[in-house]
C-alpha cells in the first residue's frame, strides 16, 4: 500500500542533519582503523592498518542489490560496524530489494566502535544510515523509517497487528536487549586477562550474583513472553515484517549458546521461527555479504 507523501515527509523531518562524510582522504595514513568502502559504480575496499602505513586498494564486483522500485531510489549508505546490530539493517534492505552502499568499520582493540563513526553521527554508534542528506540512527527508528517510506514489511496501520508491530519495534531495544548486553559484559569480565588472579574469585562472585539475581529471570521472562506471541502464528505481527527483523539479532545470538537454557525443547515456537526467517532469501543474502566482509577484516 503506498505511503501518503505527508506521512513520509513527517518521518523525514524527524532527524535532519547533513552527514559529514569524508569521501576522500589526502593520504592513506589519515586512517587509523581498517575500513571498507563500497561504492555502487566502482566498489572499492580500502584497508588501512592501525599503524600509519600505506593502504591497499582492491576493486571488487558491484555488491548492491537490484532496484525494484519504479521511481529513482535515493542514495542509501549503511555505516556498518562488524559484529553488531547493524546486521539487521542489511537484512531489511535486502528484504525490501533496495540498493545500498556498505561502509564497514572495524572495532578497536577494546571492542568498541572506531572514532570515525562520530563523523557520521555524534554518538559514534552503529547502526547508522544516510538516505541522501538524512542521517538516521537507532535500529527501531531506521526500521520504522524504511518500512514506512517504502510501504512494505509493516502491517496496515488500521489493522489489529499494527499495534503489536509498533510495540515490538520499541520492545526489542528497550526491554530485550539490555539484559543480553549486560550478560555479554559479564562474560567479558570473567574472561578478562587484565584481572589479577587473586581478584578473579571476587569478580566471578559478582558476575554470578548478577546472573542469579537479575539476568536469569530476565532471560526466562522475555523468552517465555516471545514464545507465547508466536502461538498459532508464523511471524510476530502475523505476516513477516520489520518486527521480525528487529528480533532476529538478539534471538539468533542467544541461540548460539550465549544464554544458558535457551533451547529448542524449552522454546519450540521461537526456534521454529528462527528456522523460517533464516531460510528467507533476504536473510541468506545479508548473511553471505557480511560474513565475506568479516572474513576480509580478520585477515
Short structural description:
The chain has 299 residues and is an alpha+beta fold.
Model description:
- The protein is α+β, with helices and mostly antiparallel strands and 299 residues long.
- It has two domains: 5-153, Glutaredoxin (3-Layer(aba) Sandwich); 161-280, Glutathione S-transferase Yfyf (Class Pi), Chain A, domain 2, CATH 1.20.1050.10.
- The chain is built from eight helices and seven strands; from the N terminus they run H-E-E-E-E-H-E-E-E-H-H-H-H-H-H.
- The strands form two sheets. A five-stranded mixed sheet has the order 1-5-4-6-7, covered by helices on one side. The chain has a two-stranded antiparallel ribbon with strand order 2-3.
- Helix 4 runs parallel beside helix 6 (242-258).
- Mean pLDDT is 78; it is low at 14-70.
**Major beta sheet summary:** 5 strands, mixed
- H/E element string? HEEEEHEEEHHHHHH
Summed over residues and divided by their number, the pLDDT gives a mean of 78
**Beta strand count:** 7
Major sheet strand order? 1-5-4-6-7
In CATH, what is the homologous superfamily of the largest domain?
Glutaredoxin
The total domain count is: 2
Amino acid at each position: 500500500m503506498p505511503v501518503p507523501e505527508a506521512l513520509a515527509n513527517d518521518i523525514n523531518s524527524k532527524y535532519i542533519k547533513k552527514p559529514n562524510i569524508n569521501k576522500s582522504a589526502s593520504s592513506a595514513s589519515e586512517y587509523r582503523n581498517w575500513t571498507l568502502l563500497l561504492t555502487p559504480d566502482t566498489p572499492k575496499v580500502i584497508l588501512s592498518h592501525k599503524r600509519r602505513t600505506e593502504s591497499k586498494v582492491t576493486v571488487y564486483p558491484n555488491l548492491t542489490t537490484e532496484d525494484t522500485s519504479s521511481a529513482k531510489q535515493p542514495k542509501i549508505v549503511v555505516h556498518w560496524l562488524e559484529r553488531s546490530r547493524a546486521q539487521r539493517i542489511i537484512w531489511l534492505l535486502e528484504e525490501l530489494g533496495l540498493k545500498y552502499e556498505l561502509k564497514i568499520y572495524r572495532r578497536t582493540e577494546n571492542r568498541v566502535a572506531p572514532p570515525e563513526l562520530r563523523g557520521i553521527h555524534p554518538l559514534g554508534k552503529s547502526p547508522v544510515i544516510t538516505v541522501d542528506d538524512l542521517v538516521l540512527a537507532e535500529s527501531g527508528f531506521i526500521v520504522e523509517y524504511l518500512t514506512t517510506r517504502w510501504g512494505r514489511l509493516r502491517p496496515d496501520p488500521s489493522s489489529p497487528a499494527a499495534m503489536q508491530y509498533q510495540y515490538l519495534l520499541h520492545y526489542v531495544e528497550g526491554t530485550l536487549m539490555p539484559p543480553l548486553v549486560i550478560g555479554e559484559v559479564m562474560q567479558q569480565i570473567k574472561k578478562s586477562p587484565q584481572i589479577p588472579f587473586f581478584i578473579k574469585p571476587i569478580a566471578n562472585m559478582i558476575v554470578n550474583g548478577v546472573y542469579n539475581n537479575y539476568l536469569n529471570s530476565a532471560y526466562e521472562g522475555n523468552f517465555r513472553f516471545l514464545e507465547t506471541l508466536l502461538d498459532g502464528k508464523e511471524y510476530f505481527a502475523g505476516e513477516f515484517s520489520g518486527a521480525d527483523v528487529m528480533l532476529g539479532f538478539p534471538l539468533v545470538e542467544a541461540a548460539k549458546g550465549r544464554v544458558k537454557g535457551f533451547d529448542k525443547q524449552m522454546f519450540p515456537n521461537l526456534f521454529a521461527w528462527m528456522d523460517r526467517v533464516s531460510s528467507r532469501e533476504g536473510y541468506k543474502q545479508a548473511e553471505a555479504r557480511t560474513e565475506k566482509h568479516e572474513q576480509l577484516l580478520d585477515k
